[in-house]
């Protein structure tokens, strides 16, 4: 039954974060709205990955796959944005 | 050769399960590259044409988008429950929760289709040759926002449709399968389903919540 409780807590947290992210969009945070929304999205993704997809309990290999995806996305975003804002545009 | 592994490549069921999960995570990682690239295009365009994107985003239905997010989160819960039941050998409970998951996925697609119909009706769908009329500032870049919106949500909807088809196929084909291979199939389709949910978790704020 503790597994059911874990899933219920994850579900409640995801719905709470959804309410937070929609609610925050009606308040002008002066440029921090997008950052807050992305942080909330990342938190929701982490909850889904750890509690629904059992990432923490799945051993080393799935974590390696996630780390590899994160590395390549970081290169994709990092180099593009460095060229966009740091380059001679 | 143990009888409980489906493939001769594995010595034990535990190794087969781990290999299945690893394969699905690698697949999800490759899908993240696809969605990451289109999100990057959107991000750069949003930084470059901020006012046009903010004005265009206000034409999306926040209510339907938020309801759809809740629907998809609920479908992830029922999918996690299906995995839990299948792992414990309770196949009937797993079948019911899988059917609920596929049904919630279909509800998401119906709501998404309703949104599309509203947007075509309003004339803000610059796809499939539909007429585009945007009264706000900078209609050219507003059209770019809606093009990206339709590309991203349609790609996500296509993934969700595939997920529903795989669940239906799994339910049709797993009737006579042994419990451990059923559990592995539910685990695999579950990992895919949760990944598609995570994609939406990012698409929703990025598309619907720009400077409301």
Description:
- The complex is a heterodimer of chains A (89) and B (212).
- By secondary structure, chain A is mainly alpha-helical.
- Chain A has two domains: 1-58; 59-89.
- In chain A, 79% of the residues lie in helices and 0% in strands.
- Chain A is built from three helices and no strands.
- Chain A has helices spanning 2-24, 33-52, 60-86.
- In chain A, helix 1 (2-24) runs antiparallel to helix 2.
- The relative contact order of chain A is 0.08.
- The mean pLDDT of chain A is 90.
- Chain B is an all-alpha fold.
- Chain B has a single domain (13-208), classed as Four Helix Bundle (Hemerythrin (Met), subunit A) (Up-down Bundle).
- Chain B has six helices and no strands.
- Chain B has helices at residues 13-48, 50-57, 62-87, 91-122, 139-173, 179-208.
- The longest helix of chain B has 36 residues, at 13-48.
- The interface between A and B is large, with 40 and 43 residues.
């Amino acid at each position: 039954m503790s597994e059911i409780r874990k899933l219920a807590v994850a579900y409640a947290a995801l719905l709470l974060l959804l309410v937070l992210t929609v609610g925050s969009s009606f308040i002008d945070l002066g440029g921090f709205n997008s950052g807050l929304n992305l942080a909330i999205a990342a938190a929701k993704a982490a909850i889904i990955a750890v509690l629904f997809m059992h990432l923490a309990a799945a051993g080393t290999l799935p974590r390696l796959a996630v780390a590899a995806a994160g590395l390549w996305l970081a290169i994709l975003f990092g180099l593009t944005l460095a060229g966009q804002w740091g380059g001679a545009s | 050769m143990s009888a409980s592994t489906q493939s001769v490549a594995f010595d034990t069921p535990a190794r087969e399960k781990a290999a299945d999960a690893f394969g699905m995570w690698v697949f999800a990682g490759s899908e993240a590259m696809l969605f990451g690239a289109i999100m990057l295009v959107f991000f750069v365009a949003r930084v470059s044409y901020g006012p046009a994107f903010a004005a265009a985003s206000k034409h999306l239905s926040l209510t339907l988008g938020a309801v759809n997010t809740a629907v998809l989160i609920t479908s992830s819960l029922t999918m996690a429950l299906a995995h839990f039941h299948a792992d414990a050998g309770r196949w009937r409970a797993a079948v019911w929760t899988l059917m609920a998951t596929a049904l919630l996925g279909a509800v998401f697609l119906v709501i998404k289709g309703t949104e599309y119909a509203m947007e075509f009706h309003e004339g803000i769908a610059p796809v499939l040759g539909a007429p585009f009329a945007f009264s706000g500032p900078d209609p050219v870049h507003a059209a770019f926002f809606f093009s990206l919106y339709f590309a991203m949500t349609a790609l996500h909807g296509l993934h969700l449709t595939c997920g529903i088809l795989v669940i239906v196929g799994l339910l049709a084909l797993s009737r006579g399968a042994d419990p451990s291979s059923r559990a592995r199939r539910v685990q695999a389709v579950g990992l895919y389903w949760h990944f598609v949910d995570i994609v939406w978790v990012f698409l929703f704020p990025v598309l619907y919540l720009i400077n409301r």
